[in-house]
Design goal:
The structure is a single chain. The chain has 314 residues and is α/β, with parallel strands linked by helices. The protein has two domains: 143 residues, Murein tetrapeptidase LD-carboxypeptidase, N-terminal domain (Rossmann fold, 3-Layer(aba) Sandwich); 147 residues, LD-carboxypeptidase A C-terminal domain-like (Glucose Oxidase, domain 1, 3-Layer(bba) Sandwich). It contains nine helices and 14 strands. Helix 7 packs parallel to helix 9. The relative contact order is 0.16.
Length: 314
């Protein structure tokens, strides 16, 4: 059963946590705190959010404890990750999913946080949100269009997304396929999706709309990961695909034989009658939609549209 968190309201308490890597500069979290306070919210910061333990924001136990505490704290209404980096897969077996299920609330992040979001949906059915993070977008002057999309998604109990090609404020996505497709939106960062395949924390993608983005991976690496999805049956079982931005995903040595990232994607995902929207405004780019992981969505190539078909907050 899908669980929808309560919508965000002015005056609510937001918790900033670091389930993966620490911010490169501790002032980034402080800037995010000031941003949310200026916009009418209260903010608390997890105990390990500033810690530096190698490339992690504290030990696995400390980072998992911050996530668990934020979900258990009745005062907290939304949890926003400081950044991605690396580390969220390490704590999947330390998360208190029973507490999350009993205390549903808004949880936001992307990139490395993908592993945690997929695990939460698999174990609890809670819809989470792949969107801007505290020590990234909210500390650097968030793009106004991305900002509008973020708050529209989290503060309205109505269905907020109905995206059509030609919307002036977004990039120009392309649509492919003979039939409309509907399913639960599952996925996020490709590297993290593949990193938890074969574990107890990877969801069932059967009938889903698979969301994919990537950053700083060469085409051969993307080829390898898409091949893994195909060999795992995910590509064949999916109803459709939403392909976000593949940022800085060029070959390092252009003088050697190679495929482009677009060629790799076309070969693996754009063949036949698959329903796909690509060049979508999502990923490691300033102007991005906030997308609900686990919510029902549709892709309609005939009308060149992508839309939610259910409310994502209560």
């Amino acid at each position: 059963m899908t669980i929808k968190p309560p919508q965000l309201k002015k005056g609510d308490l937001i918790s900033i946590v670091s389930p993966a890597s620490p911010p490169a500069d501790s002032t980034k979290i402080e800037k995010a705190v000031r941003y949310f306070e200026k916009n009418g919210y209260r903010v608390t910061v997890g105990r390990s959010a500033y810690k530096v333990y190698g490339y992690l924001a504290g030990s696995d136990k400390e980072r998992a404890s911050d996530v668990n505490y934020a979900f258990a704290d009745k005062r907290v209404k939304a949890i926003i990750c400081s950044r991605g980096g690396y580390g969220s897969p390490r704590i999947l077996d330390m998360i208190d999913y029973e507490t999350i299920q009993k205390n549903p609330k808004i949880f936001v992040g992307y990139s490395d946080i993908t592993a945690l979001q997929l695990a939460i949906f698999k174990e609890t059915g809670l819809i989470t949100f792949s969107g801007p993070m505290a020590a990234v977008e909210f500390s650097n002057g968030i793009d106004p269009v991305a900002e509008e999309a973020f708050f529209e998604m989290l503060t309205s109990a109505s269905i907020p997304i109905k995206f059509k090609r030609g919307d002036d404020k977004w990039s120009r996505p392309r649509f492919k396929g003979k039939a409309a497709a509907q399913g639960r939106l599952l996925g996020g960062n490709l590297s993290l999706m593949t990193s938890i395949l074969g574990t107890n924390y990877s969801p069932d993608y059967t009938g889903s709309i698979v969301l994919i983005e990537e950053v700083a991976e060469e085409p051969y690496s993307i080829d390898r990961m898409l091949t893994q999805l195909r060999l795992a049956g995910i590509i064949q079982k999916a109803s459709g695909f939403v392909l976000g931005q593949f940022t800085d995903c060029q070959p390092e040595e252009m003088d050697k034989p190679h495929f482009s990232t677009e060629q790799v994607i076309r070969n693996e995902l754009l063949r036949g009658d698959r329903t796909v929207v690509w060049n979508f405004p999502y990923g490691h780019v300033p102007q991005k939609l906030t997308l609900p992981i686990g919510a029902n969505v549709t892709i309609d190539p005939a009308h060149r549209s992508f839309a939610l078909v259910e409310n994502v907050v209560s």
